[in-house]
């Protein structure tokens, strides 16, 4: 059977990146080989995101370009998956005429069937139903050659309904995978040479709640640390309210658990946090950070902040700045509030003007850059253990590795170090990376 070319473009979060890996694996069984040249593709899939308006616009622009390719090659098959596809369903076909199929976040496992059906019948297909169990929709995606780290989905969906967020509507309610299935997948990855795994879920801290077998996130980590070959464990994303004292202790107890946590705070104003339906106060959040830092002094803390949420006054914004000054995050993903259809925030009064949002965002990002550089500079002169991931993006002659605290270190070294854990001395700190030297 002659291989056909598959081009997948991924928008959005790590969950989408991992979903795209699963799509590629499933379609390789149907004779499709990945290409990074869209013009050579027989099948194009856009794995979409709709968390912000900007992400959706990027998808539409790309579909405009793809439509031109289809005019030149009517045999080209075009599909969209991910959150925007889940949101629009059949409406996507009405908006974009060149689409052959639309599949939702619970329907990746149906891809080979969908593509085969499009080929045979040449009719438009939409599959966006939610399924009841995650094990029925999970696909094992073997890592790429020479990969040292891999993603493992442990749960999907969310029950929190934060006022600004579309995830609960697009990924469905929380569903956890049975722990024995996760352990088996990680064992397979370890046998294939993977040293670091990142456990994925919209709210990994609430792992196990729907399983009714006593499992929780900490007990899952304690099982994973026993798998030989796996040297590092990471996870994303966590909800501050569900960060338990047991999990905080786990950072101190389990050497394999990387000393980094991404804990989205979203605002430093209690009034805004309540409007957002986040379920914690700034003080409660800071207490958890203090607890983490007391047990693991050099733990890296990263977070997300939204500026210009409806009703956010200058005073609320200043409280976010004050909180940042107090916590001094290692890095921060910050965004202007983006209204999403169907969310509770859409109905809130007190919309903040776009220019004002931008001013707030820019000032906040400047402050964060100072904090990031300050936190990175604390590492100068220290020895850090890296997992060497590959060549540096900055220079052909350098290698790149990550510290346990998730910081990028570029250094000179031989290619045979890739995939190894090794020590380097940090010689210089920058905002986005560190420079290291082999001792
Ligand atoms: S916890 Fe995260 S995924 Fe869930 S609703 Fe809130 S922001 Fe969205």
Structural summary, described in words:
The chain has 439 residues and is an alpha/beta fold. The chain is built from 13 helices and 19 strands. It has helices spanning 14-28, 53-72, 82-88, 91-95, 111-121, 167-170, 179-191, 217-224, 245-253, 270-275, 282-295, 314-327, 354-377; strands at residues 4-10, 32-34, 43-48, 77-81, 101-103, 125-127, 149-153, 155-156, 175-176, 196-200, 232-236, 260-262, 300-307, 331-336, 383-391, 398-403, 408-412, 421-429, 434-437. It has a six-stranded parallel beta sheet with strand order 2-1-3-4-5-6, sandwiched between helices. A five-stranded mixed barrel has the order 15-16-17-19-18. The chain binds iron/sulfur cluster (SF4). Iron/sulfur cluster binds next to helix 6.
Which shape, going by the Cα principal axes? globular
Low-confidence stretches: none
What structural class is derived from the secondary structure elements? alpha/beta
Give the biggest sheet.
6 strands, parallel
> What is the overall pLDDT average?
94
* N- to C-terminal distance: 52 Å
Instruction: Identify the bound ligands.
Output: iron/sulfur cluster
Continuous helix count:
13
Spatial strand order of the main sheet: 2-1-3-4-5-6
Give the number of DSSP strands.
Answer: 19
Beta content comes to 15-25%
